[in-house]
Write a structure and sequence with these properties.
The structure holds two protein chains of two kinds. Chain A has 16 helices and 25 strands. Chain A is of the alpha/beta class. Chain B contains eight helices and seven strands; from the N terminus they run ββαβββββααααααα. Chain B has helices at 32-42, 102-110, 130-134, 153-157, 164-175, 183-190, 204-208, 215-230; strands at 2-7, 17-22, 61-64, 67-70, 83-86, 93-95, 98-99. In chain B, the strands form two sheets. Chain B has a five-stranded mixed sheet, with no helix packed on it. Chain B is elongated and about 60 Å long. Chain B starts with a strand and ends with a helix. At the A-B interface, helix 3, helix 4, helix 10, helix 13 and helix 15 of A face helix 1 and helix 3 of B.
Chain lengths: 598, 231
């Protein structure tokens, strides 16, 4: 590391570096934003716990939703309708309109960057069908998912990294952000960060901070998520007194490999794969007569759970279902779904060219997160306004809640979300002309809180085991906050999670080395997992309705009169607040709530 | 299950050593990474990288019983006991199974790993025929895990001068892209006794690639282009 610009913050006595912008996270959203800032000449530091191409965007498979209309007629308004309906009307329609209108532009741009999309005979980008994607407002399926085989996320993440190499973006690889630095006026002035290789703690001072830390699917036992998805940005904002929005809404992906949790893309069903129960019945025909296996994810996951509950599950314990794709033929499987075949062979011992894949609904995506507006600015209720920006703080990607996904995300809208809002945040930041502004003074106590956490860990000679507590937390979340929820389960879940939170404060690690101490990193991650879990279970208990991914057997219906509103959870005292859903799009007529059938 | 693992913490160890472990596995433990996670719950000082646990992020590359591979997609049934785990060869060890990847990424960055096309882009996508797109198969899937490069004796000898199989595979990924306009400069950049021509077709790269890619073939194609432009 260069010593240039290095100084010591007198108040905090931590080594310090200064940048115009600090971005935390180098997945799709972080790197789309950083690209814009680096190209505009801002000094920008991108922190990542892993080398950028190892971020979890890499595991996305199916595609990026955009109404290019390469396969048949399509329109952004149809995409918008599908997204609003998919969200079970909890999505904000201004943000959804913005995203769907921007979609073709960001996909073309990615292609210009070098993204190796699959192609049609006429040379245009190949698009495949996906769950909940329809033409003409639910009329019939449409091919909208822009795909690079079943490795779309991998191709996209590498392309964005490559473009950032070209723009000479400065990455801080294997650095973990611990906490925000905020002054008494609530302005965010940078982050306190931990360099894994040396164990050093730094203050990275900035004029603007962007959180792009991804999801926190690791709060559940059965998850498609990578080990790194521990909700670091969520923990950071919660500790800084900023609320988390709609955290009760977690997407179960219908097809995780049974037992292993590894994702099998919806693109399998997009290409013609079907789900079967123990009787060999294509049961989705009963639950969603129109779109069948390509209904929205929450609908398919609930239907699968119902089949298993009613005894039509497959296997020794009748605990999973089958995804059949052998009828697609080896050619389609090898060309469009090569990685799926590899995963099935490695993790399920089956070759899908001949046999079906055992699958089960598996935690996949966090619809809620840090509340933002369409510019990526983090917003909080203040002085009677619902959405007042927090000065100096942005959030983009899965850690953010704009909200475009509402109560249930449409497949392929996650990669789209990263591109659109990474781009819009980047543009908004560039327009603020930060290089011309001075850094603000750091508060005297900058860095004290995270340093106290580290000091406690270093001093603790005995205490709770980090992996054991994390595993207990995941089990509790899985059994008390799963596909079907009710008051008794959730109330018990809240008290169990709060008890675990107590234990989290008393962990100990044996390894005290400064050098690449992964035990210390896991302990620090646990501080973020627990905040995410608290937000989730407390928000879920309070919402007395079923909407999208929140399915309550004691409140089986959607209740627009009382619950067409966003939850805001505050760490302080588990306080809940609510704010209205924005049903008013930017330029078109609103899609008013109606019954949701597929 | 028995393991023999390379240990080194520069803060307390004068030199590396091997530590023997015996760990009780659960019936659901399928891959080497599952066993490593169990070991780490026993001994939290054991350091290794991991993330996606499905063979696509490239974090947990290591030397497994003498051969480079990814722990998360190495089935426990396929490894002989005691399983000997070492850091990837040819790179400086930071700690235990964690190596300093900078020499590897320096070489990757040296090949201009991004599309070069200076013509103003059209309003929509640049067109590419399915046949031209097919040329990228077997190339774009690289996960930068470094299994290939750190299995290559030419890289061990000249890590600062030889680009190595992963870097060269990626160089060819852009050479082969019908949308890229930088062919001559890309070849110039590699036309060097070390950068490209230190490849002696030992084929370790292709043998170890956990994604089934063939860097040796890509390198052969670059050499072919060099010859073609020389005559």
């Amino acid at each position: 590391m260069s010593l240039e610009g290095r100084s010591v913050a007198a108040a905090a006595s931590l080594p310090m570096r200064r940048f115009d912008a600090v971005i935390v996270g180098a997945g799709g959203a972080g790197m789309r934003a950083s690209l814009q800032l680096a190209e505009a000449g801002l000094s920008v530091a991108v922190l990542s716990k892993v080398f950028p191409t190892r971020s979890h965007t890499v595991a996305a498979q199916g595609g990026i939703g955009a109404s290019l209309g390469n396969m048949s007629e399509d329109h952004w308004l149809w995409h918008m309708y599908d997204t609003v309906k998919g969200s079970d009307w909890l999505g904000d329609q201004d943000a959804i309109e913005y995203m769907c209108r921007q979609a073709p532009r960001v996909v073309y741009e990615l292609e210009h960057f070098g993204m190796p999309f699959d192609r049609n005979a006429d040379g245009t980008i190949y698009q495949r069908p996906f769950g909940g994607h329809s033409a003409n407002f639910g009329d019939k399926p449409v091919q909208r998912a822009c795909a690079a085989a079943d490795r779309t996320g991998h191709a996209m993440l590498h392309t964005l990294y490559q473009r950032n190499v070209r723009a000479r973006t400065q990455f801080f690889v294997e650095w973990m952000a611990l906490d925000l630095v905020r002054n008494a006026d609530g302005e965010v002035l940078g982050v306190v960060a931990y360099e894994m290789e040396t164990g050093d703690v730094w203050i990275l001072q900035s004029k603007v901070t962007v959180l792009a830390t991804g999801g926190a699917g690791r709060i559940f036992a059965a998850s498609t998520n990578a080990f790194i998805n521990t909700g670091d940005g969520l923990g950071m904002v919660a500790r800084a007194g900023i609320p988390l929005e709609d955290m009760e809404f977690w997407q179960f992906h219908p097809t995780g490999v049974a037992g292993a949790g590894v994702l099998i893309t919806e693109g399998v069903r997009g290409e013609g794969g079907i789900l079967l129960n123990a009787n060999g019945e294509r049961f989705m025909e009963r639950y969603a007569p129109n779109l069948k296996d390509l209904a929205s994810r929450d609908v398919v996951s609930r239907s699968m759970d119902q089949e298993i509950k009613e005894g039509r599950g497959v296997g020794e314990h009748k605990d999973h279902l089958l995804l059949k794709l052998d009828h697609l033929g080896p050619e389609v499987i090898m060309k469009r779904l090569p990685s799926i075949r590899e995963i099935a062979i490695k993790f399920a011992n089956v070759d899908p060219i001949r046999e079906p894949i055992p699958v089960v609904p598996t935690i996949h995506y966090q619809m809620g997160g840090i509340p933002t507006n369409i510019h990526g600015q983090v917003v909080v209720p203040r002085d009677g306004h619902h959405n007042t920006p927090v000065p100096g703080l942005y959030a983009v990607g899965e850690c953010a809640c704009v909200s475009v996904h509402g109560a249930n995300r449409l497949g392929t809208n996650s990669l789209l979300d990263l591109l659109v809002f990474g781009h819009s945040a980047g543009g908004h930041i560039v327009a603020q002309n930060y290089p011309a502004q001075a850094h603000r003074d750091l508060p005297r106590d900058a860095g004290d809180a995270p340093r106290a956490r580290l000091a406690r860990l270093d001093a603790a000679t005995s205490g709770e085991s980090v992996p054991e507590i994390a595993n207990t937390l995941r089990k509790v979340m899985q059994s008390h906050c799963g596909v079907f929820r009710n008051q008794e389960l959730l109330a018990e879940g809240v008290s169990k999670v709060m008890a675990i939170a107590e234990q989290v404060a008393h962990t100990a690690i044996k390894d005290k080395s400064k050098v690449f101490n992964t035990a210390r990193v896991e302990a620090l991650e646990l501080d973020n997992l627990i905040e995410t879990a608290k937000a989730t279970v407390v928000s879920a208990e309070a919402r007395h309705e079923s909407r999208g991914a929140q399915a309550r057997s004691d409140y089986p219906e959607r209740n627009d009169a009382d619950w067409l509103k966003h939850t805001l959870w505050y760490r302080d005292g588990n306080r809940l607040d609510y704010k209205p859903v924005n049903l008013k799009p930017i330029s078109v007529d609103s899609f008013p709530p109606k019954a949701r059938t597929y | 299950m028995k393991f023999r693992i390379y240990r080194y913490d520069p803060e307390k160890d004068a030199k590396p050593y091997y530590q023997d472990y015996d760990v009780a596995l659960a019936p659901t433990d399928r891959m080497l990474l599952d066993a490593l996670m169990r070991l780490k719950a026993q001994d939290d000082s054991l350091a290794f990288r991991r993330s996606c646990r499905e063979g696509v992020c490239g974090s947990d590359a290591m030397n497994i019983n003498g051969k480079n591979g990814l722990a998360c997609i190495t089935n426990l049934k396929d490894v002989k006991e005691p399983v000997e785990l070492r850091p990837l060869p040819g790179l400086p060890v930071v700690r235990d199974l964690i190596v300093d990847m900078s020499p590897f990424f320096k070489q990757y960055h040296s090949i201009k790993p991004y599309l070069v096309n200076d013509t103003p882009p059209p309003e929509k996508e640049r067109l590419q025929s399915p046949e031209d797109r097919e040329e990228l198969n077997g190339l774009y899937e690289c996960i930068l895990c470094a299994c290939c490069t750190t299995a290559c004796p030419s890289f061990w000898w000249n890590p600062d001068k030889f680009v190595g199989p992963a870097g060269l595979l990626n160089a060819y990924r852009f050479i082969a892209d019908s949308r890229d306009q930088d062919l001559e400069a890309r070849l110039d950049n590699l036309d060097d006794p070390y950068r490209l021509f230190r490849c002696y077709t030992i084929m370790n790269c292709t043998d170890v690639c956990p994604k089934g890619l063939n860097p040796a073939l890509a390198i052969g194609k670059i050499k072919g282009l060099m010859v073609k432009r020389a005559v």
